[in-house]
Design brief:
By secondary structure, this protein is of the alpha/beta class. It has a single domain, classed as Alpha/Beta hydrolase fold, catalytic domain (Rossmann fold, 3-Layer(aba) Sandwich). The chain is built from ten helices and eight strands. It has an eight-stranded mixed β-sheet with strand order 1-2-4-3-5-6-7-8, sandwiched between helices.
Length: 254
């Protein structure tokens, strides 16, 4: 992977394919390898940029608190480094929160948006409190309990559970803590959705145990022209559970 210094961190990224630029943002607590199966099906249509969000994978982070806007600023800095003014962005779960922050901060740089297993609303108070408790637990006891709790929620497929678990276990505690707090403090993006005039693709599994399919329906209702792909029997990681269907959906951003 290549790296660029931006906002006091080293942001690692992979770049592959040819065509219109497309940034693929992984969710929490994973890294860019989440897209390994989908990327080969997209690189003939897109120039793919696959970063590790700050703290995850091969990217570094900072000790001070940060928010979704900071993740989005990291991506803007990466695009500046690559000489890319406008791009489409697809975000999975937390990556979707980053993509929405990018859309709010840099609307003129966005030519398409994909939300995969993600949502626009902010955390309700009880969920926000739960994230801070998880962050405190990670700080005191490490990532084990979070990994254990999330593995089965990603997917019902034991083989894919093992892959997701391995990816989670590779991440640093600081990345978990920073991301949990940033997610807890994220802004509500619901009102932003109706302003989108560029292509929007929403991909969601009806078996998602982490973010209910209702969030996808709500986003589609707010964005009349959006393409919604609802995947039957699929959980939180459709790019691994329904590779072809997910890649076909994202090609609508070309």
């Amino acid at each position: 992977m290549d790296k660029v210094k931006v906002n006091g961190i080293e942001l690692a990224y992979d770049r592959r394919g040819a065509g219109a630029p497309l940034v693929l943002l992984h969710g929490y607590p994973l890294d860019h390898h989440l897209w390994d199966q989908v990327a080969p099906l997209l690189e003939d249509k897109f120039e793919l940029i696959l970063p590790d969000l700050r703290g995850f994978g091969a990217s570094t982070t900072v000790d001070t608190p940060y928010i979704m806007d900071d993740y989005a600023s990291d991506i803007a800095g990466l695009l500046d480094h690559l000489g890319i003014q406008k791009t489409a962005i697809v975000g999975h779960s937390m990556g979707g929160y980053v993509a929405l922050a990018f859309a709010r901060l840099y609307p003129d740089r966005l030519i398409g948006l994909g939300l995969v297993s993600s949502q626009a609303p902010a955390d309700p108070p009880e969920r926000k409190e739960g994230r801070y408790k998880s962050a405190a637990d990670v700080a005191e006891n490490g990532i084990g309990s979070v990994v254990e709790a999330m593995t089965a929620k990603f997917t019902a497929d034991p083989r894919l559970q093992a892959i997701a678990r391995n990816m989670m276990e590779r991440q640093q505690p600081a990345a978990y803590i920073g991301a949990l707090k940033a997610m807890a403090e994220r802004a509500d993006s619901t009102s932003l959705l109706s302003s989108f005039t560029f292509p929007v693709v929403i991909v969601h599994g009806d078996g998602d145990a982490l973010i209910p399919i209702d969030r996808a329906h709500e986003a589609k209702a707010a964005i009349a022209h959006a393409k919604l792909v609802e995947l039957k029997g699929v959980g939180h990681i459709p790019m691994m559970e329904a590779v072809q269907e997910t890649s076909d959906a994202l090609k609508h951003l070309a």
